[in-house]
Amino acid sequence: MRVVSLVPSLTEAVAVTVPGALVGATDWCTHPADLDVTRIGGTKNPAVERIAALAPDLVIANEEENREPDLTGLRAVGIEVLVTEVRNVPQALRELGRVLAACGARSRPRWLDEAEAAWAEPKALDRRVTAVVPVWRRPWMVLGRDTFAGDVLARLGVDHLYAAHEERYPKVPLEELRAAAPDLVVLPDEPYRFTSDDGPEAFPGLPCALVGGRHLTWYGPSLAEAPRVLAEALRAARRHPIN
Predict the structure, then answer these.
(1) Pairing of strands 134-136, 141-142
(2) Which of 30, 46, 75, 135 is deepest in the core (most CB within 10 A)?
(3) pTM of the shown model
């Protein structure tokens, strides 16, 4: 089986479960750190000709991360494309099982069982809190409705204030985000890389939690440790606010 992955979290899942199956991955596929495969461009601009030259049996993609014209182009040259849809944790677990089986996994990996167990009863915050979750600035964008990251946070006791918005990633003026007065501002390090020097200063007086995007937005082996890691970061932000 020769597989090309257009999704960083799926790249990691396949690499650790079916060693040797991957022959290509995007420039943004950073895990495992020692992954040695042909790079085929970004998630939004993969090089179709370079992928075709690898003669893959399967390309794995995601309906949110990848563009339909690119997937159509791959199918047009006779390449099979498996497209995942992940909007919540249970769906992520199911889709991971489907992808790994399609990529030649002979059995269900232990990390997937561990992830399922970890999310069956995640250790949430002591009480539910409200949050805004910026994913970009210039312009400011936040988590809206029907997102995987939003479901992850909800299961940990965090209700983000734009969960009912008509858009999945709405653009919201900074003044409105501040006026919403959430209990917490959650700042992931991807897709925009928020750091202690770039983000918290925009929300004076509001507790800010810096969290790893790999634990908030990736669905792969990191799912097993995500509840613990994220809950620790959220609790720490409540106890020792950056602002």
Answers:
(1) antiparallel
(2) 46
(3) 0.93
Cα separation of 115 and 93, whole Å? 8
Residue 62, token pair as written in the block: 């995601």
How far apart are the C-alpha atoms of 35 and 23, rounded to whole Å?
Answer: 10
Q: Helix 89-102 and helix 110-120: axis angle, to 10°?
A: 170
Domains 3-108 and 122-239 share a fold: yes
List the alpha helices (DSSP H) in 2-84. 8-17, 48-53, 68-76
Q: Tens of pLDDT along 108-163?
A: 999 999 999 999 999 888 899 999 999 999 999 999 999 999 999 999 999 999 99
Output the CATH code of domain 122-239: 3.40.50.1980
- Domain range annotation of the chain: 3-108, 122-239
Q: Which two tokens stand for residue 43?
A: 């998630």
- Nearest of 78, 8, 17, 84 to residue 40 by alpha carbon: 8
**Neighbour-count burial of 240, counting CB atoms closer than 10 A to its CB (0-12 exposed, 13-18 middle, 19+ buried):** exposed
Q: Which are the contacts of 176, defined by CB distance < 8 A and separation ≥ 6?
A: none
User: What kind of architecture, by CATH, is found in domain 3-108?
Assistant: 3-Layer(aba) Sandwich (3.40)
